[in-house]
DNA sequence: CCATTTAATCGTTTTATTGCGATAAAATTA
DNA sequence: TAATTTTATCGCAATAAAACGATTAAATGG
């Protein structure tokens, strides 16, 4: 159906999957990496940096903004995007716990 | 188009997005969490644990196996699944670098 | 060999995602 | 005000993903 049955999963599981989905496209990974590297960035810069059309970049930015990972402030005719550090750290904490499950003691099986 | 233009991105960006996509569904998050908790697990156990049909679980297991995050060994009529620790750590290293970008010194902008 | 158990695969339906051309909106500049 | 710049939105086409019923495959037990 293309529709995940979110209601049968825990909030934590859904939250992890939502953040992971944001990183599930190389364009969004590239956008975030660029924002970290550059500190601040206009949408037009990203269009040049990444080789996708302007509406496509705008759409990816919208998704990242919806999740709170980035924020954009209008400056004249352009919009300045940057990482939302507080929300990034919150996301990172959640993902780090998930990724760090291998640190709990256990015996490998098969 | 529903088709990511992977060729315009770096190998690292594509790799991050591929792993992230694996965690982009709560069922796969739940499967991995359960495998970590239980050590070893049969497909049928996951069908009971998570509330999805057997073909659906089987499909999710196939994706996780394809990425190398889990491995399955046949035991009689059933298949025993568990985390592939080596590959998990490798994936974790890649994701940790990506998530840890906020640790590099920088000045917040907008 | 036949029934049973367990998991994988096939085929289909439904919804989501990607990408972009065309257009609109908003601010700036001439 | 008109032209320009920059970004957002709309609408569409193409592909991917999710879910599952039906079926197949593989091993075991009687």
Automatic annotation (TrEMBL), chains A, B:
| UniProt entry tagged with the keyword Oxidoreductase | no
Query: Which Gene3D superfamilies has this protein been placed in?
Result: Winged helix-like DNA-binding domain superfamily/Winged helix DNA-binding domain
Q: Which Pfam families match?
A: HTH_5
Instruction: Enumerate the SMART domains for this protein.
Output: HTH_ARSR
Sorted UniProt keywords: DNA-binding, Transcription, Transcription regulation
Q: Which parts of the sequence belong to the HTH arsR-type domain? A: 8-106
**Is this entry keyworded Transmembrane helix?**
no
PANTHER family assigned to the protein according to its UniProt record, in alphabetical order: REGULATORY PROTEIN ARSR (PTHR33154:SF15), TRANSCRIPTIONAL REGULATOR, ARSR FAMILY (PTHR33154)
Name-wise, this protein is ArsR/SmtB family transcription factor
- Source lineage: Bacteria, Pseudomonadati, Bacteroidota, Flavobacteriia, Flavobacteriales
């Amino acid at each position: 159906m293309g529709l995940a049955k979110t209601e049968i999963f825990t909030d934590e599981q859904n939250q992890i999957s939502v953040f992971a989905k944001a990183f599930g496209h190389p364009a969004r990974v590239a956008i975030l990496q660029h924002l970290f590297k550059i500190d601040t960035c206009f949408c037009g810069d990203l269009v040049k940096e990444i080789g996708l059309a302007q509406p496509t970049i705008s759409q990816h930015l919208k998704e990242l903004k919806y999740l709170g990972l980035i924020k954009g402030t209008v400056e004249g005719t352009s919009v300045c995007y940057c990482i939302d550090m507080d929300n990034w750290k919150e996301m990172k904490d959640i993902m780090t716990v998930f990724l760090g499950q291998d640190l709990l003691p256990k015996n490998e099986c098969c």
